[in-house]
Amino acid sequence: MPEFTEISPERLTDHRAVQACCQLMPEWRDTSSIEVLQLQRKSAVYRLARPNPGRPTLIAKRCLEARALSERAVYEGTASSARRRAPANIRGSATPAPATRR
User: Cα–chain-centroid distance for residue 87?
Assistant: First the structure.
């Protein structure tokens, strides 16, 4: 399989992954680093990091629209299924403590 390379722009805010994320979440404009996790001819996967140490990273994927739509449907189905199966206390509702025998 051939190796692919990507030329990164001088400013991180000019990178297509940062630009795409900023359309949905403008706070990601202050991205401090971009790591290429996977690079292929028609797709790429990036890890974006924020400058604050406790902040989460974001995984961004570039791919064909048809593939993105099918992956989104799978993700949304899995995420909503996981929320339905999660215990109430994890979702934020208080659950009463189980009764104990004496």
Answer: 24
**Is 94 domain-assigned?**
no
DSSP 3-state assignment of 35?
Answer: strand
Q: Which residues of 41-66 are buried (b: 16+ CB within 10 A; e: fewer)?
A: eeebbbebbbeeeeeeebebeeeeee
- β-pairing, 44-49 vs 58-62, is antiparallel
Q: Which domain holds residue 34?
A: 12-87
- The pLDDT tens digits of the residues spanning 68-88 come to 899 888 888 877 766 666 555
